[in-house]
Design a protein that fits this description.
By secondary structure, this protein is an alpha/beta fold. 40% of the residues lie in helices and 15% in strands. It is globular, with a radius of gyration of 12 Å.
């Protein structure tokens, strides 16, 4: 059985994104819920990886960490101006077609 992607969102992701995913049955953990507010980007990536969660972010600093070879469970990135509905549908699609092991050290753009 293929393990479904579980998400972790950093502190800048709109609550509407998290609510939209949860209404659709997706396992998503926020930085606030994980007591990670104010953590560095490296700490967010380490935490998400330790938890086996793909991070969804709208902070392009995570792309730089990936480019430097920082190990992670997966990064999904969207620009700040991306509409909530597009983000939720994109994250749903990724969860349906990508396995957890395929996301490891991979970046996907919405």
């Amino acid at each position: 059985m293929v393990e479904k992607i579980r998400y972790y969102t950093n502190e800048h992701v709109a609550r509407a994104v998290v609510h939209g995913l949860r209404r659709r049955g997706v396992d998503v953990l926020t930085a606030r819920e994980a007591n990670m507010l104010g953590a560095t980007d490296e700490e967010h990536l380490r935490f998400a990886s330790d938890q086996g969660r793909v991070i969804f972010t709208q902070d392009d600093d995570f792309l730089r960490l990936h480019a430097r070879g920082f190990d992670h469970a997966g990064i999904i990135y969207a620009h700040q101006q991306t509409p909530v509905g597009l983000i939720v549908s994109g994250l749903m699609l990724i969860q349906q077609i990508m396995a957890t092991d395929e996301a490891r050290n991979h970046v996907e753009f919405l």
